[in-house]
Design brief:
The protein contains 14 helices and 16 strands. It is an alpha/beta fold and 378 residues long. It folds into three domains: 155 residues, 2-Layer Sandwich (Nucleotidyltransferase, domain 5); 87 residues, 3-Layer(aba) Sandwich (Rossmann fold), CATH 3.40.50; 103 residues, ATPase, nucleotide binding domain (Nucleotidyltransferase, domain 5, 2-Layer Sandwich).
Length: 378
């Protein structure tokens, strides 16, 4: 069976065409610019050309695209946006208006002069990925499942902290069954509050195959846990150090024992190590993270996790993994199937097996490396 797994981050979108019939290392993969970086570059080009822009499409990941839109406005050029596209930058449309962005309907956007640059906002572009694979004579027409990971803050109610809202969601998911796969949803299960996931569902359009959506952070951790060294440990710390966010889990025999999420830009090796040690001791508090402008923390098992006895104190993945090079904590850099950048994709594949039981044995067998066929023998 085949799974198209796409992990959409801030810097890159990582793509894996998983085929259970062949050795995992021989699966086809691509590391491409993230959608928000693509929008960032298109906005910068419009600024250089002195052109107004209109943003259409759906809610997607912000960050770099938001900064480029701000720079475009500061340069004195107009930014028009439909409401769904504008929510990429903020859920509060009144706030969007205050930034100088001009909200327009779809019809009004279409009626703008031809010299206004059109930019379509979306995280998941199946057509573009299909064309990229087709250039190398690889078809996506026969995939059995499409799985996509995005970081979703959710739509917080007016006046409610975005950071708290995000962590409320994490806590609810963790308490559900203490499994990382509880962060994955079939398309019909996506919570209404997860607006970015809903937008990906809309962008994917009508599909003849199941669509699985998952949060990027737990997907990366679940994928990193497929590393053989990590798999041989039953109780450990696992940190995904992303470009914008860092999430860490304490894992035990019963599943997730604790979790915290913070902003990577507010961490260094010493501070992160201190938080990890507190989580291991079972005395890290939600207030400590939240009042430091992070998202929060949750401890479900406060019995101390002894450090220093195993192969490592903390397993690490994510694009900012090198932060732990300066830590006094013994760290192991998880590289599932030899590729840290694809950790999120491997997590998506693992989650598909959990969400669609008929594929679980086949996926597990492939991830256990029982398949040894190279692609030319298929």
């Amino acid at each position: 069976m085949k799974i198209l797994a796409v992990d959409i981050g801030t810097g890159t979108q990582d793509v894996l065409l998983f085929d259970s019939r062949i050795d995992v290392e021989n699966n086809y993969k691509m590391v491409l610019p993230s959608p928000t970086m693509i929008i960032n570059r298109r906005l910068k080009k419009a600024t250089e050309n002195g052109q107004s822009v209109v943003l259409t499409g759906v809610t997607m990941g912000g960050g770099p695209s938001n900064w480029a839109a701000e720079d475009h406005l500061k340069a004195g050029y107009k930014v028009y946006a439909t409401p769904d596209a504008a929510r990429t930058f903020n859920d509060d449309l009144d706030f969007i208006r205050e930034t100088g962005i001009i909200l327009v309907s779809e019809d009004e956007a279409a009626a703008l002069p031809e010299n206004v640059t059109r930019i379509k906002m979306l995280d998941f572009d199946l057509e573009a990925l299909s064309k990229a694979f087709a250039y190398f004579d690889v078809s996506l027409n026969k995939v059995d499942v499409i799985a996509v990971a995005v970081f979703d803050h959710g739509a917080a109610p007016p006046g409610y902290s975005d950071r708290q809202f995000r962590f409320d969601y994490i806590a609810d998911r963790v308490k559900e069954d203490r499994r990382l796969s509880d962060f994955a949803f079939l398309r019909e299960e996506i919570p209404d509050i997860m607006t970015r996931m809903q937008a990906v569902k809309y962008s994917a359009g009508e599909l003849d195959v199941p669509l699985v959506l998952m949060d990027t952070a737990p997907a990366a951790v679940l994928g990193a846990m497929q590393d053989p060294v990590v798999r041989n440990n039953s109780r450990f710390l696992m940190a995904n150090i992303g470009n914008f966010h860092t999430i860490a889990f304490r894992i035990g025999l019963g599943g997730i024992e604790g979790v915290f999420e913070h902003h990577t830009g507010m961490l260094d090796a010493g501070k992160l190590s201190g938080l990890l040690k507190k989580m291991a001791q079972g005395n890290l508090t939600h207030e400590e993270i939240f009042l430091d402008q992070g998202h929060g923390a949750l401890i479900l098992d406060d019995s101390p996790l002894k450090l220093g006895d195993g192969d490592f104190d903390v397993a690490v993945t994510g694009p900012r993994w090198a932060m732990m090079n300066h830590s006094e904590m013994p760290a192991y850099y998880a590289t599932p199937f030899g590729d840290m950048m694809l950790a999120g994709c491997f997590g998506l594949v693992k989650a598909v097996g959990e969400k669609i039981p008929k594929y679980q044995d086949e996926i597990s067998a492939a991830l256990d490396q029982s398949q040894e066929k190279p692609p030319w023998e298929l």
